[in-house]
Structure formats: C-alpha cells, structure tokens
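WARN retry 2 of 3 for item q-0093 after timeout on previous attempt; input resubmitted unchanged.
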Amino acid sequence: MTHLIDDQMLGGLLRGGLPPQPGVPVVTTGYFYVRLCQAVLASTEAAGVLSGPFAVLPTELRRRAVRSLLELPDGIGLVSLRELAPVIGQLRVRHSLNILGMEVLASAVTLDAEVFLSAPSPRLEEALRQESRSVHVVS
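OK item q-0093 returned
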C-alpha cells in the first residue's frame, strides 16, 4: 500500500514530522507540491496555512526544511503527469473535479493508494470512494 499525502502533510514531513504510517511509501501530487513551493518560497510577511509552519521554525531548521522542499527527499515520491494524463482522461468521464482533484484521484487509482487529506473535500472524497480508494481526513 502507498500513502498519498496533500500539501499540508508534505510540509509537515519536510519540517521533520512523521508520515501517516512509518514504513509505508509516501507520495504526493505535482499540484500539491507546486502549491507548497509557491506558498513557502513566495511567502511575504503574512504567513498562511502552508507557509506559516515554515516561517516559525528556528533559522537552521527552516533552512533544512526549505532545502528538502527544493529537492524532495528520496523517501517522498512524486507522481508524473506522463503516467497520470491518460488516467485523468478516462476518469474525467465519470467525475467532475477540478484539475487538482483529478490529479489526486488519478494518482490514488494508479498507485492503489490510500489518500490522506488535511481538510475535508466532499466531492473529492466521494470520487475516491466511488473508485474504491480509502480516504482519511486528518486534522
């Protein structure tokens, strides 16, 4: 089994947190990775949900976390759109989600992954269940 994590959980791992279940492979999507990079690397004085936890780290820990963001550690997989594009095309017939949601759904189906979200997403959660994928909303 593989665990597919969202941008908030990815940020937590990069800051030294633990994965949902140690020893299980962890992957994220391109859009989740992009959103986290945008939030952290382009953050201004107003820290948001994704950038705030990086901003409050002591200087050396923040540097390490940002280095991990710039070059994801080997233990965190990133699904390629090369693999996902055909699956997204097929799933689009059955599901009406935005592109982020479609990428998550296609990744979960392709990888036979359990999905971990930091916030509820009812339409995505329903689509995942329809495709027989497990989804967990973790606060």
